[in-house]
Structures are given as C-alpha cells and as structure tokens.
Amino acid sequence: MVEKSVCVNNNVLVVDAGNTSIKWSLFNGDGEVLEHIQSATPPAFEGVSSIFFASVKGDQIDSHLCAEIQHHFPEAHLVKLAATQVPGVMKNGYLHPERLGVDRWLGIVACHFLYPGNTMLIDAGTALKIDFVTENGVYLGGYISPGLAMMRQSLVAGTGRIRFEDHEMGLCKGIPNTTALAVQYGVSEMLLGMVERQCRQHPECRIVMTGGDAPWLKDLLGLDAIYDESLVAKGGWYLGRYMTRGCP
Ligand SMILES: Nc1ncnc2c1ncn2[C@@H]1O[C@H](COP(=O)(O)OP(=O)(O)O)[C@@H](O)[C@H]1O
Ligand SMILES: CC(C)(COP(=O)(O)O)[C@@H](O)C(=O)NCCC(=O)O
Ligand SMILES: [K+]
After folding, report:
1. Nearest-atom index, ligand 1, CA of 210
2. Domains of the chain
3. How much distance in Å is there from the Cα of 123 to the middle of ligand 3?
4. Is the distance from CB of 211 to CB of 124 less than 8 angstroms?
C-alpha cells in the first residue's frame, strides 16, 4: 500500500480528453490516485505542480483546452503527452506512431507497468479499442470500432425512419420488438461479438478493461478481466514522469 504523500504541493494532474468526456486525475508524488473525475471544465484540485495533458480531440480544441487549464493552474508546468514518446523499457510497434491515439498508448503503458504480461486491453469509449501488448512491453497494435452511442447515433443519422427516445431503451429478455430495443440490442450484439471473437482468438492474453462502457461489457460477457477506470490516467502519470524525469 502506497503511503499518502504528506506534501500537498507536488501533486500531478493528468488530463485525459476523449471524444465524449474529459477525465481529470490527481496523483500525489507517490503515484497514488487522489481524485478521478469527469468534467467539461478544470476541477478545483489543489497542490498541482505538474500537468500531463493527453487529448484525442484535435489540435484547435487542444490549444484552447490547454490555455484554459494553464489559466486555472498558473503555477503548474504543463507537458503534452503523445504516442511518439516511449518509456525506455517499451516499444511502440505502430507503423506510424504519430497517428496512434495517445489514449490507446497510455492505456498500453499503464498495462505494462501495472498489469505486466501478454495483455489485451479493451477500452470501451466513444470508440471501442482492443489493443495488444506483449509481456516484454512491445505494443503490437489493435482494432478500432464505433462505440455503443456512436453506433446508435449513426443509425439515426443515416436513416429516415429510425427514431426513438432514450427512455424507450431498456431491458429486453427475448427478441427485441420495438425500434429502440432493436437498435439498442443490435449495436450491443456488434460490440459483444467483436470482443468475444478477440477473446477466443487470444486465449493466452490477460484482459484489462477501461472506458465508460467497460463495466457494461465486462458484466454482460462475464469476462475474467481487470477493470481500471483510471487506467489511461495512470499511463499518463508513468509517461509524464518518464518525459520529465527520465524514470519510468
Ligand atoms: N457519465 C457518462 N458520460 C458520458 N458517457 C458515458 C457516461 N457513462 C457511460 N458512458 C458511455 O461511455 C462512453 C464514453 O466513454 P468514455 O471512456 O468517457 O469516452 P471517451 O474517452 O471516448 O471520451 C459513451 O459513449 C457512453 O456510452
Ligand atoms: C480511436 C480514438 C478516436 C479513440 O478515442 P476515444 O474513443 O477515447 O474518444 C483515438 O484513439 C484516436 O483518435 N486515434 C487515432 C487513430 C489511431 O489510433 O490509429
Ligand atoms: K478514451
């Protein structure tokens, strides 16, 4: 058990800006998570001396967000994280690392340091990502598909008559017999099928999960998996420390 650091001025803020939500995680000097929240705006965290910023939202939004964060924490030193940054003990096997989503990379970095071994990482966010890292810390790549909400939205956007209210979705024990349930369970089947196939093809892998839809996925499939809601942030802590101190 990591002892809580008594000094309140060397906390690290990791910002994980995804396409749906921004996660803010506060770490003490020992790497213990003190706070982990979702918020559209910077939270009133205290004692922040370093900020590690990771975003997949796009350059223009990122620059506005960084300016807002720096205004909120004027004394803190902000470092932007990217998938081109590799902690000495790992290897990024992506053909073009500069195009790899930093959230995917940070999840992999966290898996290597926290849950070592041949690992399949399932990140069920705006998009569903399934990524693979070897026990030696070599990132192999992975798969991207739309997440649940994105698939539902694409059916509404791409058709003239698929329309329903969120409250019409719910539990269905048999075959769906309404538009809302047909869409809800149809897109679920897509995601469940993808995850089940990958689990069958990689029985040797331990499974780590994160992302807003991960609890639903884990429970529905009864997966023997580690669920870590702050996995990406923890990867950001590790990579940020490596980039600022040289130690993994
Ligand atoms: N409180 C919530 N806010 C937003 N999305 C949520 C929430 N709870 C569950 N979800 C689900 O999680 C997905 C977003 O997960 P998240 O990991 O935050 O995405 P991202 O990292 O891509 O922004 C949404 O598509 C939605 O299905
Ligand atoms: C796949 C993603 C959109 C996932 O983002 P999220 O679901 O976390 O919002 C993001 O990792 C990304 O923008 N990737 C760039 C393309 C790639 O990883 O190859
Ligand atoms: K994400």
Report:
1. 17
2. 11-83+233-245 (3.30.420.40), 91-147+183-230 (3.30.420.40)
3. 7
4. yes
